[in-house]
C-alpha cells in the first residue's frame, strides 16, 4: 500500500462511540504502516425554514444543538486524552464538522468532499432492531449503504 492508511472515526458522547474510539486507538497502535487517524464529531443542525415564524424556532433549536455539542465535544476530547496515556504512540486529529441535515448524510458528504481516499471508517452501532430501527433510523446502516469505503461497525 502506498501513502498513508487513512482512518476516520465517527464520534458522539455514547458508550458505544467510546468503544469505537478504543478500537481505533488499538488498531492504529498495531499498524506497521504510516497512518492518519481522525476523530470526527458531526454537529447536525436543523435546516433553516423560509417561514418567518419557523425560522426563529429553528434558530433557537440550533443554538441548543450548538450548546449541547460544545459540552459533548469537551467530554469526547477528555476521553481521547485518557486513551493517549494507554496508547502514547498513537497520534490523531479531532475534527468538529457542522452542517444542516442528518448526521449520516453530513458524514457521507464530508467523506466524499474532504477524504475521498479514506481507507477505513469506524462507527459505533446501537444494535437497533425491528421497529426501533425503522423509527429511530440508523446512522451506521445509512453509512454502510452510502459510503464508498470499508466500514468497521463496533457494536455493544
From TrEMBL:
Gene3D superfamilies: HUPs (3.40.50.620)
A family per Pfam: Usp
Positions of transmembrane segments: none
UspA domain: residues covered: 6-155
CDD domains, A to Z: USP_At3g01520-like
Name of the featured protein: UspA domain-containing protein
InterPro entries: Rossmann-like_a/b/a_fold, Universal_stress_UspA, UspA
Organism (species): Diversispora epigaea
Lineage of origin: Eukaryota, Fungi, Fungi incertae sedis, Mucoromycota, Glomeromycotina
Amino acid at each position: 500500500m502506498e501513502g498513508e492508511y487513512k482512518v476516520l472515526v465517527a464520534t458522539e458522547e455514547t458508550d458505544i462511540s467510546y468503544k469505537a474510539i478504543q478500537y481505533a486507538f488499538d488498531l492504529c497502535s498495531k499498524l506497521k504502516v504510516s497512518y492518519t487517524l481522525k476523530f470526527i464529531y458531526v454537529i447536525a443542525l436543523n435546516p433553516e425554514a423560509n417561514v418567518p415564524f419557523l425560522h426563529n424556532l429553528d434558530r433557537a433549536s440550533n443554538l441548543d444543538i450548538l450548546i449541547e455539542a460544545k459540552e459533548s465535544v469537551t467530554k469526547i476530547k477528555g476521553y481521547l486524552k485518557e486513551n493517549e496515556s494507554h496508547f502514547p504512540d498513537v497520534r490523531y486529529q479531532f475534527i468538529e464538522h457542522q452542517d444542516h441535515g442528518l448526521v449520516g448524510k453530513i458524514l457521507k458528504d464530508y467523506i466524499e468532499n474532504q477524504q475521498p481516499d479514506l481507507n477505513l471508517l469506524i462507527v459505533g452501532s446501537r444494535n437497533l432492531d425491528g421497529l426501533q430501527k425503522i423509527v429511530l433510523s440508523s446512522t451506521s446502516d445509512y453509512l454502510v449503504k452510502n459510503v464508498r469505503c470499508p466500514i468497521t461497525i463496533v457494536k455493544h
